[in-house]
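Risk mitigation, structural track. In case the binding assays with adenosine-5'-diphosphate fail to produce interpretable data, a predicted complex structure has been prepared as a fallback.
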Amino acid sequence: MHNQVGSARALDVLQTVFGYPSFRGQQEEIVDHVVRGGDALVLMPTGGGKSLCYQIPALLRDGVGIVVSPLIALMQDQVDALAEVGVRAAFLNSTQTFDEANRIERKMRSGELDLVYVAPERLMTPRCLELLQASRIALFAIDEAHCVSQWGHDFRPEYIKLSVLHERFPSVPRIALTATADHQTRAEIALRLQLTDALQFVSSFDRPNIRYQIVEKDNGRKQLLDFITGEHAGDAGIVYCLSRKKVEETAVFLNEHGINALPYHAGMDYPTRTKHQGRFLREESIVMVATIAFGMGIDKPDVRFVAHLDLPKSIEGYYQETGRAGRDGTPANAWMAYGLQDVVQQRRMIDESEADETFKRVLGVKLDAMLALCETLHCRRMRLLEYFGQPATPCGNCDTCLRPPVSFDATVVVQKLLSAIYRVEQRFGAVHVIDILRGVDSERIKQWRHEQLSTFGIGAERSEAEWRAILRQSIALGLVSVDYDAYNALKLTDEARPVLRGEQKIQLRQYEKPLKQRRISAKPKGYVESDLSMDEQVIFDKLRWWRVETARKHNVPAYVIFHDATMREIAKAKPGSLGDLRGVSGVGEKKLETYGEDIVALIAELM
Ligand code: ADP
Ligand code: ZN
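Fallback model:
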């Protein structure tokens, strides 16, 4: 039975507290289910609107909602943002003094709080469990629930212990949320958190406003610079690199070229890291250069691009990282440069890792899926969504849709490559094998008398870059492997045999020279650079200045005050009174009360 009254109350909270006119996607069903005491497992892409799924039920149910989150550094901002809309929120973590924690605990016991954010290791302490027992609990929200997965990249051992919640508080509803969508993770969350009976809500994982591009790596850094200056001058963005060293170097390089870049990785001291994260959140156009240590829980809505200078280990990771772009729903870019070295490096990392064989196999399968995405001749988004079990059609907003790659029958070319590797007894690396194919008279060739091989010069018509692309794809397809214990010698795999025998045809992506001008028109179709008229633009600019000031005064990120989208709507509506302002999406009662007068006055001044 649908509870009409419950739904109406939920909608009322959505409108008056959060200022949004309607629920998105499955939010309403989820809220409804949890308000009535049901357990839920929510899979929603980054930016989909997970927070409201537990915030609204916490407000509607008796007692305090406990939000378990591993993201200590972000708790302050989350609590500040809630205070801005008039929700009584607090957090408990190791950054607090004893007195502060005591004060929060007292408020929890006496029912003066709506939401409390707690780090998982804190939650499991006897003191905290006792506190929970003594308080009235509305619900448990387990955010970033994929941290429970031992196969995943964000594994946190403390998460496994969270099953205690179910045992200790069987009647309190639990809602687990994640943006990681694959079946394995989902099953693991359900199992480990004892949520096998919970209702599962799986949203569409499509992020239509993100444009996916994967380019052939030539000089990665230079390509990155061209990409940023060409398409994202002055925008906030994130650049992911594999190593700490590369993070540092890339940040320096970007700064030298006039880009406001900051480094972030786990090797930096905590204060600096926090400072950089704070600046990224608060300032408008910082480019964060980071390892994957950065980003979980970052809900800055106006990140305009996410760039990868190295190949991610899995599609899950890639999708989560790129998902940090464009959470406000307006156009954003996910850009990656990818080359032969990436394939070799990632395969080696798996090979050399300490993990057991099963784990290595899982890593290998994940990497293969990632490589297939890079090499695909079809729509990238289709590949991504199909990976998450969601059928899709060509999207029209990825590089392969916009400029379909040319494929060619590469059977003979690949046979040449495989023979060349075979003729040198699988004892030489990429550079040497490619030299042989191209008939280059290098010292090394002479030294080994390889100019006498039948394969010498049989591929002279192709450039070195083309051969590297062919080799890369052959490695990605599993025809060739690299022996890291033997100077990176190229080896043939069992899969190479049918190709050499001519029993299997191979289709490859035609190599395209990376060109600066090759950039595809920056803005997706249907995107209007500015949908504001001249005078509306003036109001909008004025509002932005006002927001900068106000954010500084309140010491919160600008978007906590109002999103760009809300300010754009205000500029269009030109409210003459508080009543006019009330209808604008993103303006709830508390914000109306706090900022309404200011805004109406500011607009009156300009009219
Ligand atoms: P997630 O946690 O799933 O990544 P958030 O909960 O941070 O996403 O929500 C993403 C953005 O969408 C936030 O800025 C939020 O205010 C906004 N949002 C969420 N639900 C709605 C809604 N029903 N209407 C308008 N905006 C919404
Ligand atoms: Zn596409």
